[in-house]
Every structure is written in structure tokens, then in C-alpha cells.
Amino acid sequence: MRVATAAILAAGFAAAPFEAVRAEDAALASPSTAPASPPTVANAEQPSISSSVPALGDFKKALLDRGVNLQLNYIQDTFGNPTGGVKQTLDYESVLYMVVDSNLGMLMGLDGMSFRVNAYQIQGRGISAHNIYNLAPISSLEALPTTRLFELWLEQKFFGDLVSIRVGQQVADNQFFNTDAGALFVNNSFGWPTITSSDLPSGGPGYPLSTPGIRVKVTPNEQLALLAAIFNGDPSGAGFTGQQEVKDPAGINFRIQDPPFVIAEAQYRYNQDKNAPGLAGTVRVGGWYHFGPFSDYHIGYDGQSLAAPTSSGWPMVHNGNFGIYGVIDQMLWRLPGSDDPKKGIGAFSRISFSPPDRNLIDFYAEGGVEFMGLIAQRPDDSFGCAAVFTHLSAPVRALDRDTAFFSGESRPLRNYELDLEVTYQAQIVPGWIVQPDFQYIFHPGGGAVDPINSAVGRIPDAAVFGIRTMVSF
Questions:
Q1: What average pLDDT does this structure show over 136-144?
Q2: Which of 22, 309, 431, 436 is deepest in the core (most CB within 10 A)?
Q3: 281-300 and 260-270 as β-strands: parallel, antiparallel, unpaired?
Q4: Contact, 70 vs 35, CB < 8 A?
């Protein structure tokens, strides 16, 4: 049965071409506001408010003893931008995250098999989409209000934990191209990076959209893991039209007819044990390939600039798209006497490249420093600062230049966006955190023209203040 299911799903990835995107549609191909999955820990060790409420603790333990891990996480963000952006207001958004992980070995005697189903109830509105118009959404919760099925998959492990195969509706953002230390930060791009959410149809397989796929993981030892996956290449079927969440409001499109998206990664972890003599770290390298057609951002199929008055408006189409990336998490100093190898000072960095002719973003880099458990009276608190640099491709600037030339109007050329974040995460009790956050956005939208008041030129740099609250069961 498991083999048949995998075969049927794999056969569904037949390459059906996307429709070409006209120039006026390409102008709407601003990065998806789909952020990475909100912070959760899908295992029994997740800090839970149930530890402070005996009745809830007994209920959760009873489920765990039977092989069922029920989690409910309520996350709320409130952000305002007193300066910058296209307008200044205070915005609220929240997510109720619901997940059931089941050990089918304990429940049904199916050794090595597990099952997951989860969903989101999303409320409010995002400050990036309504106020700032930046590329990397301020909050990892930002999405249109809805109740949406997210993941629905079966996983089978073979030969102990050597090989695992996961089949069903799933995402890439919690398995590939992620960083351990980056999970502290609120900005979306520290989850599913802006370069993938911008360059892939419908933002790729990351929150708030999932899609059918097959993931294979091989773990030869405790240090090394090799992962590869194939996903349907357009989670919603909306492509780059900006209608991704509208096209799949409930998360039940279950598309398998689009050209596939494949991704592979190698992970190497070292000094993870509490008695390790060195500092803990993880290195990840990987790449992805999409088999669909992608529109050029500057040149039409007739060889003219898309901004030329004589242009047909139909872009040149390139076959396929790809990206390569690297990630490092490295402890710089370990708290003396701590049994946790990740208490102290750590740093992280991610970098990625994609071809410029068919992508809005061709280069992406981020990095940050995190301070964990340094206050003796607050051992579970963390503080961090980080930055995201997003570089817009040369064809995007060339199109801006040609648009200014043919219109006879002076206008800025889009080039880059830089996002800075400083945050402090305080654990009130296990399972309840409060997190003040500050972000500053240079060149929102990559230096795009203010769409409401073009007379001011670029969208003004924005200062954003906010607070996140999360309660976990």
C-alpha cells in the first residue's frame, strides 16, 4: 500500500507548462508574502503550558503514553511602524497552530511508521503587505485570514533510523534550507528565505501553502544526514499572479499536475553531545531545481525590452530554474558548567544564488548572533540581532531604467533591501513566551517607487516596533 501510494503521487508530477506571464502580470510578481512556518517544536520535548496546570499535564501525558502528541500553539504579533513605509498604522495578526503527531507503531503495531496532520487558523493582517511593502515580511505569521489544512503525511522508517520516506502534503521550509539559531527571529525571511519565496511559483512549499511531495532522508550516523525531495511545483496553481492564497484558501487543492520542484541537502552536525570537547555546529549545503518555464524580467520574446512601446508585452521564457545555498550554525562560546551545548553565544549565516535573468532575486545573504541563557536568573531567555540582505537582479534594474527612458520620467532603480532585527525572547513560564522586537527596513521593496505617493520617490525606510506572544500546549 505504501509503495502504491508513492508511485501514484510520483506519477502525478507530469510536466504541464505554466502559462506565460504578460509584462503587466510580471509587474505584480512581487515576492510572495508567504512566510516560513511559525515557530513550533513538533516533539514531546516542546515546552508546554501543561507543565504549569496539573490537569492539562496529566491529559498530555496520557496521550503521549499512547503514541499521540497533540500540540496547540497560539502566536500573536502586534507591530507598528511610526516612521517609513507607505503609511503608518498598528497591525495585529495571530495564528492558532494545531497538530497531531501519531506514532503508528504504538497505536497500530506498524513499526517505524508515523502520521501527521496539522492546520492553521489565521487572523488579522500583516504590516508588510499593508504598510511597508517590503520583500521580507516583518512577521513569520503574515498570511491572509483563513482556516487552512497544512500538512498531511505518512512517514516510514527503515533499518532503524537509517532511511525514512515521507509521502503526502508537506512543506520544505521545516526540512531544507533552514537554520537552528535563526528560529529565534520574527522576520519571515529567517524561516523560508525571501529568495525562494520570491523566485518559486506561489512562493514554493512553505507556510502558509503546502503541497504533495515525497521526501527521502538517509542518516548514516548521528553527524551526517542526506535529504532529497520532490514536490508539486506550484502549491496553489496561481504562479506569480499574487493570488496564491486566494486560489487555495483552505489548503485542499492537492495539486500534482504542475512541473516538479526538487531539492536536496547534505547536513553535518558536530559536537552536539553535552560532553563534547568542542563547540557545537551544523553545516548544510544544498540546491534546488524547478522544471517549469520562467519569464524573463527584462526581454520579451521578440527581443525587445518589455518597457518598449513597440513590445508585445510577452516576456521571453526560460526553461527551468535553480538555486544553490549554504547554511552554517556555529557556537562561538559555551556557557561554563552548562549541560546544554547550545547555551552561550552562537552565530549563523545563510547564503544563496539563483540565475538573474529569470528571477526577481539573484543573491541572498543573512547572518546573526544569538545569546542564550546568559542571565543566571533567566536561563531560558534569548537575545539576538541579525540582518537580511536581498539583492534584486540586474534585469529588474534594466527594466526600471528602460521604463524611465521610454516614459520620460525620472524614477529610482530597484537594487536591494536590507532588513535589521533586534529581539529578546523571555520565557514567562514553560510554554509561554513574550518577545519584544525591533526591525529597521532599508530600501523597502528593493528601493521601489512609493505606490501611493510616487512624488516622494522610493518607499521611505521604515522603523518597526512590535511584540510577539506565544502560548504552547
A1: 95
A2: 431
A3: antiparallel
A4: no
Lowest mean pLDDT among 30-34, 39-43, 84-88, 223-227: 30-34
- Domain, as residue range, for 44: 2-472
Q: Rounded distance, CA 300 to CA 313, Å? A: 7
Looking at the DSSP bridge assignments, the partners of residue 263 are 229, 288
Residue 273 one-letter amino acid? D
Q: In sequence order, what are the beta bridge partners of 361? A: 392
Q: How confident is the model at residue 37 (pLDDT cuts 50, 70, 90)?
A: low
d(CA 31, CA 8): 32
Q: What angle do CA 215, 350, 204 make, to 5 degrees?
A: 40
The reply to whether the predicted model has a pTM over 0.90 is no
Q: How far is CA 204 from the centre of its chain?
A: 9
Lowest-pLDDT range, 21-35, 278-292, 405-419? 21-35
Q: What is the CATH number of the domain that holds 426?
A: 2.40.160.180
Asked whether the predicted pLDDT for residue 278 surpasses 80, the reply is yes
Highest mean pLDDT among 32-36, 264-268, 428-432: 264-268
